[in-house]
Every structure is written in C-alpha cells, then in structure tokens.
Design goal:
The protein has a single domain, classed as Rossmann fold, CATH 3.40.50. Helices cover 48% and strands 15% of the residues. It is built from nine helices and seven strands. Strands 3-2-1-4-5-6-7 form a seven-stranded parallel beta sheet, sandwiched between helices. The protein binds NADP nicotinamide-adenine-dinucleotide phosphate.
C-alpha cells in the first residue's frame, strides 16, 4: 500500500498538505493517508471529507511512547511511504527565560525530536521517488529574540533537512524544508496564549498558498521552499548580514 503520512493534520498547514495529497493522489501514487494529531475527532472529520482512504492516528508527538506506537504501526503494516509530511509544530513568542519548563520541552520535542525520529522510523519504508516534507520557518534563517527556542528548533530543521537531502540523494529520496513567514492557522493564537513579547505580526499567507509553493518548488528540484518575494529577500539578507544587526532590526520592529 502506497501511503502518505501527515502530522499536524488537524489544522493549518498539515491539514492543507493532507488535502492537497488527497486531491492529487493519482499523480503522486498515494492510496492511503495517515492523518496524525492529538484531536482524533478533528482528523476523523477531515478523513470523512477527503477523496481517499485515511487512517486516523491520535498521537501526542511529544511522547516517546506515542512515537514508538507509530513505529510499531509501520513495522506491522510495512507500507510504501511515498510522502512523509512533518508539519506538527508549536512555538511561544516569549524570551527563553520567560517560558515554562513544559513550554520549552514541548517546543523542542515536537519541532525537533518528533520529526527527526519519525523520519528515522519511516525511512526503511521509503524508496526512490519518496519525499520528506519538513516544516521549517522564515525564522530558521537567523536567531530570533523572543521567539528564541522556536527559531532555534526551525534552524535545526533547516540544517537537518538539507543535510538529509544530500544523504538520501543516492536512494532517490527527496527532502524539502518549507520555510514560510506568517501563516493563517491556529499557530499564532497558541504562540501568544500565555503572553507574547512579539507584537508586530505582518502579512499572513494562507496555508493553501504555502502548500502549493512547496509542491512547485519540489517540481523545480529545490530543497528549501520560501513563499513570497519579500520573504525570499529577507531570508537572503539574513544569510549575508551580521546576525547581530538582523536581530536588532527585528527587536526594533517588536518595540
Ligand atoms: N503559522 C505560521 O505562521 C507558521 C509559519 C512558519 C512555519 N510554521 C510551521 O508550520 C507547521 C504547522 O503550523 P500551523 O501554522 O499549521 O499550526 P497549527 O494550525 O497550530 O497546527 C499545528 C498542528 O500540530 C499539531 N500538534 C500540536 N501539538 C501536538 C502534539 N503534542 N502532538 C501531535 N500533534 C501536535 C496540532 O494538532 P493537535 O492540536 O490536534 O494535536 C495541529 O494539527 C509548524 O511546524 C509551524 O512551526 C507556521
């Protein structure tokens, strides 16, 4: 059975990836999508609306036990994993010293540990033509005060994805890191719900536009997908300007 796995499938970008893959299932050779999130009723509702067979998997990806349940499921079913979409993620818009222990650990476990382990667990079931889609962020290109832990997890994802793409090239497996700026979803509300030191949220893109850009960039052979001209320029500048300067500009925007 050829499958796609989408984490974060109950909301925002992960849900749009699942929708896109379901709508283009024949083109991408997918027979089933595994929808992963904690809110079972939400992914069940999504499954009912998609034009493809779905398996709904209620899973807290910060839990090592739950990650191992996914590993066991892969070992039992031995599917051909055509797409792995690591979209589950969270952040808190606060200084690292104002975050709780739980917020800090959950951000790192969900954004870094879970995608790295899921990729490890799914890779034996991938073959030439398989694709790993990892969610990075515009914040992956520079250190970001007041989104410190979040941005650092996304820098990990960008670095990990690009190196993994090189390592897996020989097997014909593609890896792309999707790095949008602000996107309309539940993410920003959750990031700010326990207080926010980030005040200036700019233009917001739709999750659908992020997903379409990712597939357009995959088709062009890119390993990083950045949506929007301004975001591309800013990401480019973040690579060449001193990071102290880039951080100061960001801080000024937030005061
Ligand atoms: N929105 C933005 O501005 C933006 C910009 C750049 C990058 N990103 C990245 O894009 C990805 C998707 O974000 P989004 O905007 O779609 O956010 P979202 O609407 O908040 O969706 C987050 C998803 O992650 C799942 N999730 C959260 N905690 C989880 C846990 N402990 N275990 C399993 N699943 C969990 C949520 O499902 P449940 O709550 O049902 O578990 C939900 O499906 C994230 O990696 C985010 O960092 C977002």
């Amino acid at each position: 059975m050829n499958i796609a796995i989408a984490t974060g499938a109950s909301s925002g970008i992960g849900r749009e990836f699942a929708r896109y893959l379901a709508e283009h299932k024949d083109k991408h050779g997918i027979e089933e999508i595994w929808l992963v999130a904690r809110r079972l009723s939400v992914i069940e509702e999504l499954a009912g609306s998609l034009p493809i067979k779905c398996k709904t998997i209620a899973c807290d990806l910060t839990s090592t036990d739950d990650l191992h349940k996914l590993r066991c499921l892969l070992e039992e079913e031995k599917p051909a994993v055509r797409y792995l979409v690591n979209a589950a993620g969270m952040g808190k818009f606060k200084s690292a010293m104002n975050m709780t222990e739980v917020e800090t650990a959950a951000s790192i476990d969900l954004n870094v540990k879970a995608p790295a382990l899921l990729t490890l667990f799914a890779s034996p079931y991938m073959q030439a033509g398989s694709v790993i889609i990892n969610m990075g962020s515009r914040s992956a290109f520079q250190p970001v005060p007041y989104m410190n832990i979040y941005a650092a997890t996304k820098a990990f994802m960008l670095s990990h994805s690009r190196a993994l793409g090189e390592e897996l090239k020989v097997k014909g497996i593609r890896v792309i890191c999707v790095c949008p700026y602000w996107v309309k979803s539940e993410f920003i509300d959750i990031a700010q719900d326990s207080g926010s030191e980030v005040k200036n949220i700019g233009r917001m893109w739709s999750a659908d536009a992020v997903v379409r850009q990712a597939f357009a960039d995959l088709a062009k052979g890119k390993d990083v997908s950045v949506l929007g001209f301004t975001t591309k320029v800013e990401a480019g500048l973040s690579k060449v300007l001193p990071h102290k300067l880039v951080m100061r500009v960001w801080e000024r925007m937030q005061i």
